[in-house]
Amino acid sequence: MSLSRKDRPLYLQIKNIIKDRILYGVYPLGTNIPSEPQLEKEFGVSKITVRGAIQELVQEGYLEKGSGKGTKVIRITSTSKLSRWKRFTEILVEEGHQIKKQWLNAEMVRNEAGTEPYSLFGENCLKLERVYLLDDVPYIYYTHYLMNSIGDVKLSDLNDQSLYGLLEEQDISLDKLRDEFDVAAPPEHIASMLQMSAGKPVLKRARYSYDEQGNIREFSIGYYNTELQNYVVNYEM
Predict the structure, then answer these.
(1) Strand locations in 12-98, DSSP E?
(2) Using CA atoms, how far apart are residues 119 and 129, in angstroms rounded to an integer?
(3) Distance between CA atoms of residues 56 and 63, nearest Å
(4) Model confidence at 221: pLDDT above 90
(5) Is the pLDDT of residue 118 over 70?
(6) For residues 142-168, b (16+ Cβ closer than 10 Å) or e, as one string?
């Protein structure tokens, strides 16, 4: 896997990739992650770089190093200042599912007048598209729109990185999220990706993300194939 050789240190890039794999069930709770030599080979980096990434995750409580026993996953949930409840994907992972993300497209686009991206970001913005696989079956299709000040982003820059990891690279801290849910038929190419009949209504989710100054930073539209799995929220009282 190729990593970006600019901006963030390589060990932090690897840390975030491993962390995402933990949170999405690629490395299940109680199992060992790949050995350091395996990770060195996969990412094409030095032993020191891999050890730095692992040490960060040990300090954050995700991993535990055992002498001669490998490095074990001991936590599979994240903590976020934006929410007191678990993310939907974390619930699925705890139930034994595996989630994989695949970035499909990254480009600067011209927004059409009258559309939501145009009203939020003006004529131009960054558009990212990705699909979530539930146990290797396409499940969620997301289209993300971000302000064009982030600059040009290529698919090779994303790898397994999370969207919010990308924003953190730009020193953008989100303070408030707004979710809107609806039922709608996805565009034909999205229905095809989700292996659904064209015109069939599915769960649609629109998310608005704001920074601490109240400025809109991200607008996303997600379509969920709920025939595979209902959308679930667990609240802790």
Answers:
(1) 63-66, 70-73
(2) 20
(3) 9
(4) yes
(5) yes
(6) bbbbbbbebeebeeebbbbbbbbbbbb
Between CA 215 and CA 174 the distance in angstroms is 9
Strands 137-147 and 216-224: antiparallel
Q: What is the pLDDT of residues 25-56, one digit of tens each?
A: 888 888 999 999 999 999 899 999 999 999 99
Q: Which residues contact 59 (CB under 8 A, 6 or more apart)?
A: none
The residue among 91, 108, 109, 2 whose CA lies nearest residue 45 is 2
H or E stretch covering 206: strand 202-211
Q: Give the separation between CA 14 and CA 190, rounded to whole angstroms.
A: 30
**Whole-number Å distance between alpha carbons of 44 and 38:** 10
CA dist., res. 8 & res. 198, Å (int): 42
- Predicted local distance difference test score (pLDDT) of residue 82: 47
Matching residue, tokens 């146990």: 135
CB 101 within 8 A of CB 24: yes
pLDDT at site 4:
56
> Nearest CA to 18 among 153, 159, 167, 128?
159
pLDDT computed for residue 5 by the predictor: 46
